[in-house]
Amino acid sequence: MKFPAPVSVQWIASWIGAELIGNGQGFATGINELHKVEPGDLAFVDHPKYYAACIHSAASFIIINQKTEVPAGKALLVVAEPFEAYLSLVRHFCPFEPAFKPVSDSAVIGKGTLIMPNVFVGNHVSIGENCLIHPGVSIYDHCRIGDNVVIHAGTVIGGDAFYFNKKVNREVWYKKMDSCGRVLIESDVEIGCSCTIDRGVSHDTVIGRGTKMDNMVHIGHDVVVGRNCLFAAQVGIAGATTIGDGVILWGQVGVSKTLTVGDNVVVMAQSGVPHSLPAGKAYFGSPVQEAGAGMKQLVWIKRIPELWDKVKRLEGSR
């Protein structure tokens, strides 16, 4: 999430009650989580396992619960509960805004766009020209949709990220990390029935131009999908993953979090993707491997009963 204008790190320290160490004259341009941070961003870290990764990331300002060395030009904001400090900033700069109409007065709808009955369009949503939004679609606050986009019935755009902070020393272990990102859908996209595209937890979820989705596809928070991709039914992509241009994911493919799928990759149906995939190849299996090897392995697996019978006959003939 970008702030409306750069915010003094001294003001932030005062707001969250933090001790400021390092660059006390800086200005934060936004707040972000570790996988998406950029220079000027404010991030938080509350576990020693991630201290080094966060401090040496692109983030310029770090909310942390322990004093440590500060790289030149950066600042630490030391508080007892960094997660709570993060939430207070999100709620200040991106407060929840209730909606009282099916289509908000602050929504901008382009020329030639058709909004069917029982559609919800939230606050500060922008929809381009010549779009078709079918019945029962929900588009949450701050989403941006380009031109010539078709969204079929029952789809939800911009639901909260499935992202929770875990602490076993409190009564409720999992506490929600409030989402302040958006969903950006570029032009010429078509999204099937009953799909769900979560907004970024702090950055944006992006669907590239010309991408087409079948029914019941789920796109997790902060995912960036390239141009001209094709996703068949029941594909699921976990948070903060990057999908290149021209990628095809056939039915029931599952893609794990924070990885990269290269351009023009094809993943066969019912495959599981637990790691990044180089561009321009076809993959199959769970976990995936190159399709030729995976298919060959499947053939041999089917022959196991036959081969086992041969082994037993050989043992019996001794």
Written description of the protein model:
With 318 residues, this protein is of the alpha/beta class. Helices cover 16% and strands 30% of the residues. It is built from five helices and 34 strands. A hairpin with a 7-residue loop joins strand 16 and strand 17. The longest helix is centred in the C-terminal third of the chain and has 13 residues.
Strand % is 25-35%
The biggest beta sheet, please? 10 strands, mixed
What's the end-to-end separation, in Å? Answer: 73 Å
CA radius of gyration: 24 Å
In round numbers, the mean pLDDT is: 93
Strand order of the largest sheet: 8-11-14-19-22-25-28-31-33-34
Runs with pLDDT <50, length 5+? none
Question: Concise description?
Answer:
This protein is of the alpha/beta class and 318 residues long. It contains 5 helices and 34 strands.
Topology diagram in text:
Blueprint: E1 2-8, H1 9-16, E2 19-22, E3 27-31, E4 41-45, H2 51-55, E5 61-64, E6 75-78, H3 82-93, E7 108-109, E8 114-115, E9 120-121, E10 126-127, E11 132-133, E12 138-139, E13 144-145, E14 150-151, E15 156-159, E16 164-166, E17 174-176, E18 182-185, E19 190-191, E20 196-198, E21 204-207, E22 212-213, E23 218-219, E24 224-225, E25 230-231, E26 236-237, E27 242-243, E28 248-249, E29 254-255, E30 260-261, E31 266-267, E32 272-273, E33 282-284, E34 289-290, H4 291-302, H5 304-316
Parallel strand pairs: 3-4, 4-5, 5-6, 7-10, 8-11, 9-12, 10-13, 11-14, 12-15, 13-18, 14-19, 15-20, 18-21, 19-22, 20-23, 21-24, 22-25, 23-26, 24-27, 25-28, 26-29, 27-30, 28-31, 29-32, 31-33
Antiparallel strand pairs: 1-3, 2-6, 16-17, 33-34
